[in-house]
Each structure stands twice: as C-alpha cells, then as structure tokens.
Amino acid sequence: GQQLNQSPQSMFIQEGEDVSMNCTSSSIFNTWLWYKQDPGEGPVLLIALYKAGELTSNGRLTAQFGITRKDSFLNISASIPSDVGIYFCAGHNAGNNRKLIWGLGTSLAVNP
Amino acid sequence: GAGVSQTPSNKVTEKGKYVELRCDPISGHTALYWYRQSLGQGPEFLIYFQGTGAADDSGLPNDRFFAVRPEGSVSTLKIQRTERGDSAVYLCASSFDRGTHEQFFGPGTRLTVL
User: Nearest-CA neighbor of B84 among B60, B114, B62, B41?
Assistant: First the structure.
C-alpha cells in the first residue's frame, strides 16, 4: 500500500540539541498527524495539522503542514532523554475514507 | 480509564491455533481501527468499523483474519489457524467518525505464534 517517505530513519543526538524530521508524499493530503511510540506502547498523538501552511506547537514540539500539502515537518527543541522513541507521521487524503497512510518512523536516541 | 484498552497484553499460541484479541474503544468513539505492527515498521492497516459495520476491510491479509463489532463498541479480532508469520503487535485505535482524523491507540496485544 501507499506509504509516506519519512526521514531521517534514525537520529542519535546529544541532550539539549534541536531535532528536525520530515515526511513527504507523492499525493496531496488534507491532514497530517505526528505520533510518538515508546517501546511496548501504542502510538501517542502529538500534533494534528489540518490546513496548508499551519504551524502548531505542543510544548517543545512544533509541526508544520507544508504549503504544497505534500509534506510535513516536526521539530523538537532542547531535547531531553524522555524524547527517546519512534516518531511516526501519518496523513489522510480525501480518497481514503478514514484510513491513514503511515511513514516508517524516525527512531530518536538522546545521549544525556 | 478513558483510553483505548486491549486484552490480552500478550498472547503466546501454537501454530494452527485460533486466537481472539479484544479492543475497548474510547467511549463515544464510533470509528474503530485494527492495525498490525511488525518490528521496525509503522502500523499496517487491517480493518476499520463505523458503528457495527466494517467500512473498510481491505487490509485483512487473508480469510484467516476476521473482526467483529456487534454492538458498535467493543471489537474482537479473530485469527484462525495461526501461522508463525502472524506474530506481531496488534494495535487498536478509535476516533470520531466525522470531522477530525485523530486516532487514539491502545497499548497493543503482542501475539507470538510458536
């Protein structure tokens, strides 16, 4: 099935550094969602975006809905050890009922 | 608890056996989704329900997989004649069936087929 291109695949950073990851699609989406998954847990919704150009923050996290509607970005500022996990993007387009299309995830490791 | 719950959290079975996995969605959420997740992969869509009916079951891999939601709340994913390749984490999510597409996930059931 269709998948989103999510990059980077993995990141290893020092505590306090900023992090940026992105997702791209070959088709236009009307919704972008960013999730974080910890080991042994289900994905937890971080940020939802519904409008092209929209920039939304949730604490140290900021996500943007690209103006082309084919990409989205997630930034984490001043990373801390509990930011460790796998970050997934997911998108929805009008032709898919309520199904989401998922990226393969970005694995983040933070060195204290 | 107000979140999605799934039982059991872990299930170990033998090849060829039948298993049932249960999902309790968030109260008031009429849409319910089942996903399968293998190590290092994102969630793989299986099926979703609007109320009691399966609105899209295109992700079910074969006819050994079946899901029901008889009263529009709790759902059961059923796997017949399990195979080793069915081993994965099975995730359930729920959402409203109008408006936002935000899906809220349970902790998953880890299925191991020996």
Answer: B114
